[in-house]
Amino acid sequence: MSRYPLYLAPMEDVTDPAFRLQCKRFGADRVYTEFVNADALVREVNSTLRKLRFAEEERPVAIQIYGREPESMRDAAQMVEQVRPDFIDLNFGCPVKKVAGKGAGAGLLRDVPKMLAITRAVVDAVHLPITAKTRLGWDHEDLLPARHEWWSQTTGEQPFIVNLAEALQDCGISELSIHGRTRAQMYSGEADWELIGAVKNNPRMHIPINGNGDVTTPERAKECFDRYGVDAIMIGRATFGCPWIFQDIRTYLDSGGSCPPVRHPLEWCIDLLKDHVDAAIAYIGDEKKGILHSRRHFANSPALKGLHDFKQTRIALLQAETRNEVFTIMDQIVNQWG
Ligand SMILES: Cc1cc2nc3c(=O)[nH]c(=O)nc-3n(C[C@H](O)[C@H](O)[C@H](O)COP(=O)(O)O)c2cc1C
Q1: Biggest CA-to-CA distance, the chain
Q2: Which end of the chain is more exposed for a tag (fewer CB within 10 A), N or C?
Q3: Ligand 1, atom 2: closest residue by C-alpha
Q4: Does the pTM of the predicted model rise above 0.85?
């Protein structure tokens, strides 16, 4: 593994096997499944069980689970262990109301004893490495150094995440990924990497700390490794329609930051978007749903940004409902803008 590992962040409805494999082929050092609901897993809901599938070529792969009770998270982790991923990741960061509002995901940032009980229950029940992903805290008050109700006096006045990272480490997790925002921020504002760095540079931490949030360019990736010393960077939204970002960042890091930005031919990018459409249709087993699933990638691909007079074509691409229509429009794009 590289000295500068790059991971594909877990993303609901995005990091399916088709997309994970694409990112893997471009050099993602680890891929994560979308979060999998522990309760639904324990009830053996078919659509949830499907989320545990992965291809051998994806390894190392982490399957992420979420839930709000130690028992169901433990039972779900034991089920996940049977499909033999390389890691099981615990989601303590999902901010959306239907998850955090019910006390799972980032909701556990407001019930640290429960979060730690879940972590201990899972670590004790399975033999795989258990990792966790969380945010900086619940809201801005957690960003300030303060004595906090969850921790004893001995930890002193540290920001919430510094204490939390120590406590999770004490529960036996093998790595921690931190998205540099609070729950209250959702996805707004900028990710605060200073606090991620504070966790990494805490002399009491010895497990790897993976930084996450707003890494969209090779330059920013290099800066995050250099300034904050994180053990790996996890990339989320910048992968939309751009699985090659892993290769671009790797090339830049390997050159020590001296190579110029890589420009990929439009036709090459479009071919990859087409591959994803086909893979999504095959994975979902339905043409229309597969295309709907791929739209996020068309809408956000940097390959389709900044094209002169592109608006109408973009609308047509985002409205196309058959594979034939999508591919015809994509071929036109190559002819006109390639
Ligand atoms: C569409 C979408 C779905 C996401 N789903 C998950 C998820 O299932 N589990 C998780 O831990 N984080 C999830 N996240 C958060 C990302 O993993 C990541 O922490 C966040 O996008 C910040 O990283 P970025 O700035 O590189 O995108 C999701 C984010 C997006 C945009």
Answers
A1: 67
A2: N
A3: 11
A4: yes
